[in-house]
Request: fold
Amino acid sequence: MEHYLLIVRSVTHAQSIVRALDRCGIRSSMLRAPTGLTDRGCSYGVRIRAMDHEAARECLQQAGLVPMRIYGREGSGYREVTW
Reply:
């Protein structure tokens, strides 16, 4: 995997995830969810490096934050994954 994309319902949820990851020392960035990854028009994504996925999972569990879906970037596309 090149990176992971955590899909969430709203900009507020995405901001909460970015802040929680930042407190855990994990770099992330927020973006609009790419077309085709969600059926919701206002979804957002939080991008994390592949090497941070385990730490990010633990961090978000402790913070009580759960993404709707998680995708891994492979080559030119995304594949849904589970943590």
Notes: Helices lie at 11-23, 53-63. The chain is about 30% helix and 35% strand.
